[in-house]
Batch of 3 targets.
Target 1
Amino acid sequence: MTKITFVTPSGERIETEAENGATVMETAIINGVPGIVAECGGACTCATCHVYVEENWRETVGGPSMMEEDMLDFAFDVKDSSRLSCQIKVRDNLDGLVLHVPTRQG
């Protein structure tokens, strides 16, 4: 299992175990991570699963696709580290990944 940590706006750290092949959004929903709404269920048609990837993980996670970049336009407080968690597939090399949940979703 791949370990992923979500950090809430209040600083609470929620450590999860994720199935490879699932999405980070699915992992957040299964584990009840507050702030990850996922209104579209992972279809990349909303911006309610927005997360910030910690700096040291950005290269490993990779950047957003063009479609994801378009959807990030609807997210609140987008940064260079912004990603939609529905577009990040869990894999072995993401073990230990740390993501920050924004104060609100788009």
Target 2
Amino acid sequence: MPRSTRRRPALMHPATEEIDLFDVLHALSDPTRMTIVRILRTEPERACGTFPVDVAPSTLSHHFKVLRESGLISQREEANRRFSALRTVDLERRFPGLLDTVLAAHALTEGAEGAEGAEAR
């Protein structure tokens, strides 16, 4: 049986000037999406199915869609794989210092939660 020749719809990415602060903050409010952003901050690009998150593939697709439509990531397709990259330059141009500030605050929060758990033991 021949494979379908239907192509997936083109991936939509907002232009830099269209990136909305509230959409970015909403996207960053989810722990799974924060994991994706933290990893992409240290790696220039990564295949979508290779992130160490414990969610169903359909849920992961949703998280990537939220990140892409908010303007946090760009995605490209290569054969049957989709690659994601953080839009660091666009985000810095639109909201200087925001991403670094949010990631630093998140790291402090995670560190504090880990310390509290250690003290309880």
Target 3
Amino acid sequence: MDTIAWITSIATALALSTFLAIVAWAWSRARAEANRESAMLPFALPDESAVAAQGKDAGQ
């Protein structure tokens, strides 16, 4: 194997190990609460009718 092939192989192995480390971190028990909180963010928005009423009051 020539030098470029070795460098490519090492870079591929490093990239794969980095990816697997990120996946393991994201799915770890330490991140469970943060993941649950992030999953609920879209539902934490104010009600559209309340926002429209506030905009109407501010315009008068």
